[in-house]
Amino acid sequence: MSSALDQFSASIGKARTADAVWRLLEELTGSLPGHRLFTVMTVDMQAGLARRAYSSHPAEYPVSGTKPIEHNSWFDIVHGKRLRFVANTIEDIATVFPDHALIASLGCGSVFNLPVVLCDELVATINMLDRTGHYDDARVADAEAMLRLPASLCCSLALQFGDSRMSGI
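Given the sequence above, the corresponding structure tokens read:
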């Protein structure tokens, strides 16, 4: 874990684009908690849309994609309380994500969403998906502790680099 964070720390200062920043965060999250699918969704509450800023699977989840913000239990947890969201079965995922069939087709049956808050605004969610049952309590607690600051830094840098996918923030 610390070597992955050391590598991230050594590399992040060299990043010059939002895509480079997101790739570094994807690499870091690959070490802990791990994932088969990694995306970053930004939030535009005025437009009522979440925009995909980065995707490890651009064919299935292109960065040009948007989703309407749905006011469901996921929204209450992530947007309202600004807490992580974890579901460890495709059935639980299906209760909050309409694209659950696509998620399952990628071999994913669990999800860990980490909200990123800057200046008291929810600006993005870091989304990691993996096999059923992957995001147990210990793995999520360790990952959340390790990822909060790097995720905030990456969002700040993407904004600094003028990433148009961060619009509405």
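Helices lie at 2-12, 18-31, 73-80, 90-94, 100-105, 137-160. Try to locate this feature in the token string yourself.
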